[in-house]
């Protein structure tokens, strides 16, 4: 985006960092140099080659040798520009993170402080300071980078608050700051804070759209908002939506699906499938609530129509994407493009399965899609290879569409033991932060769900629970609609979810990844893990925000929770051997996700 447009948005000229020892290129061009090293921002944003006379890259010098805070800030900016921005934005959003944001920071100190905070946290990602712990008064040892980061972040937040109080914060700067703050909070484990910031960002977008419609702000801002900012928020919401009730649906109202027009780039293909993914996840939640109701045939008709429409759009996207991939193969394709293509294919497979099964009550129906799950695993491995750094590790954080969602989906819904374990192993290799979530928390949860299902499945097959043969001979299979009126309180359930509250130790984790005895044989997955051993839809909620439909205060009372405690609600099917009927059971446990 041109600097002139940024100036018009702010209503004042764009300032520049005072320079005495600029790069050779800026000296030759007789323009001010910001002195960022090893490449100054001016050269980076204009495409010029940047060289300094007789200097050493500041990345090569340790923080302890920094003569003053200005040097430390410039060092962190360089790390942001070289390492953090490409990782957070991914190969398709590099313009925003490496061009637009650095341009804004020249005239906005709060944005400068935010991006150097991200640079410092990226340079020292482990152990990253836990803001939630610090805010609760717990002491924590911080290295110099972390101390700098917390100081800069505090300064940035204070500056934004002052602009808000004075009524001088532009929507443009507010949205960019919001995204940067979400990244900072996510890197430091502040999931709830990042979620709150996301909600505030969505409100800003809605207000910005209203201003554009009322012609209060220039129409030129529409392109930046809808083509740059909204897609980032939509991706973040899509990543988080399976667990958190973020306001993704509020963003969908003014977004047009252009998949029917074909794709001219991987970026347009990505935006197309993210839109379908967001709509599918909102739709899936409607289906989960429908499956709790009784004899609502009108709603079933409506949901069936929505399912058909979404499925048709997904297949149109897939056809257009295949054409795009074929055209790209006739040119020189970079490893990053190959990785993004694999990631989009994995995302397609996950959405394909979701739409096929969203109105099904039986968890065993997923067994028909084992090949699709295997495709997700194979494509995710290709995508991880493309984003790996030279040492084989992944960057600490990404806001890009990632392997996290399709692999997480596979960990929960695929019960074929080898495919499931491979998905978990790949998820363990993913970036530490995906969107607003810490990967290790999600990973631990997936490992525990798998262990619980397999343990209970083996117990059933060993005669310690209902015989699986009786389940298979049921005359009323769980594929039929299960009205919530047939559900009973989870106190009678056979599945004990209390083991999910505590994190497993290293020995337990090691045992999870080894194949259990008897699983090596070619036994049907529906027998290895019968219907009653499978966890169904998972919902996250906070009592102070209201209880999910069908949930009472008594359901969570045994945990003696505070009003702001997060809970997970689990659902699974149980068969009554006396009446040979199925009912839906529920359980609730506290979580720190």
From TrEMBL:
Residues 471-490 are annotated as: Disordered. Keywords: DNA-binding, Metal-binding, Nucleus, Transcription, Transcription regulation, Zinc. It comes from Penicillium atrosanguineum. GO terms for molecular function: DNA binding; DNA-binding transcription factor activity, RNA polymerase II-specific; zinc ion binding. It comes from the Eukaryota. InterPro entries: Transcr_Regulatory_Proteins, Zn2-C6_fun-type_DNA-bd_sf, Zn2Cys6_DnaBD. This is C6 zinc finger domain protein. Residues 481-490 have a biased composition (Basic and acidic residues). SMART domains: GAL4. SUPFAM superfamilies: Zn2/Cys6 DNA-binding domain (SSF57701).
């Amino acid at each position: 985006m041109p600097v002139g447009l940024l100036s018009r948005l702010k209503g004042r000229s764009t300032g520049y960092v005072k320079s005495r020892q600029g790069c050779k290129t800026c000296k030759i061009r007789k323009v001010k140099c910001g002195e960022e090293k090893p490449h100054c921002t001016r050269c980076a944003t204009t495409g010029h080659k940047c060289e300094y006379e007789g200097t050493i890259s500041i990345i090569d010098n340790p923080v302890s040798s920094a003569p003053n805070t200005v040097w430390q800030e410039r060092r962190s900016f360089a790390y942001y520009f070289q390492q953090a921005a490409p990782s957070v934005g991914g190969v398709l959003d590099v313009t925003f993170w490496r061009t637009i944001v650095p341009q804004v920071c020249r005239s906005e100190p709060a944005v400068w402080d935010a991006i150097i905070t991200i640079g410092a946290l990226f340079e020292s990602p482990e152990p990253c300071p836990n803001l939630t712990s610090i805010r609760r008064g717990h002491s924590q040892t911080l290295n110099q980078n972390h101390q700098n980061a917390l100081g800069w972040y505090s300064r940035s937040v204070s500056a934004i608050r002052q602009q808000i109080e004075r009524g001088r914060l532009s929507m443009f700067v507010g949205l960019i700051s919001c995204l940067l703050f979400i990244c900072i909070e996510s890197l430091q484990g502040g999931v709830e804070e990042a979620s709150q910031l996301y909600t505030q960002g969505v409100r800003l977008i809605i207000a910005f759209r209203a201003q554009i419609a009322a012609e209060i702000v220039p129409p030129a801002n529409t392109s930046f908002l809808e083509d740059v900012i909204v897609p980032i928020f939509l991706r973040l919401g899509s990543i988080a939506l399976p667990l958190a009730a973020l306001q993704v649906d509020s963003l969908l109202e003014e977004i047009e699906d252009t998949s029917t027009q074909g794709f001219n780039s991987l970026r347009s293909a990505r935006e197309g499938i993210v839109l379908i993914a967001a709509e599918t996840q909102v739709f899936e939640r409607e289906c989960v609530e429908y499956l709790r109701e009784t004899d609502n045939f009108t709603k079933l008709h409506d949901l069936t129509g929505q399912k058909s429409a979404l499925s048709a759009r997904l297949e149109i996207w897939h056809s257009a994407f295949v054409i795009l991939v074929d055209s790209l193969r006739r040119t020189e394709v970079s490893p990053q493009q190959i990785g993004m293509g694999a990631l989009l294919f994995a995302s397609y497979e996950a959405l394909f399965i979701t739409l096929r099964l969203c109105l099904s009550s039986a968890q065993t129906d997923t067994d028909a899609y084992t090949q699709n799950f295997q495709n997700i695993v194979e494509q995710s491995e290709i995508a991880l290879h493309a984003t790996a750094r030279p040492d084989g590790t992944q960057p600490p954080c990404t806001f890009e569409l990632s392997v996290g969602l399709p692999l997480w989906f596979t960990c929960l819904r695929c019960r074929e033991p080898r495919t499931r374990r491979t998905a978990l192993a790949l998820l363990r290799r993913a970036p530490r932060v995906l969107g607003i979530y810490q990967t290790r928390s999600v990973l631990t949860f997936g490992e525990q769900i798998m262990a619980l299902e397999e343990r209970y499945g083996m117990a059933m097959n060993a005669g310690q629970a209902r015989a699986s043969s009786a389940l298979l001979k049921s005359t009323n299979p769980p594929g039929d609609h299960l009205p919530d009126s047939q559900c009973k309180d989870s106190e009678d359930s056979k599945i004990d979810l209390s083991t999910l509250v505590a994190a497993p130790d290293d020995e337990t984790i090691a045992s999870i990844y080894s194949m259990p005895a008897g699983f090596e044989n070619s036994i049907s997955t529906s027998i290895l893990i019968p219907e009653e051993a499978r966890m169904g839809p998972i919902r996250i909620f906070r009592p102070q925000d209201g209880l999910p439909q069908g949930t009472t205060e008594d359901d969570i009372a045994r945990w003696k929770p505070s009003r702001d405690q997060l809970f997970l609600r689990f659902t699974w099917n149980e068969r009554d051997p006396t009446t040979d009927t199925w009912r839906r059971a529920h359980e609730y446990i506290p979580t720190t996700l």
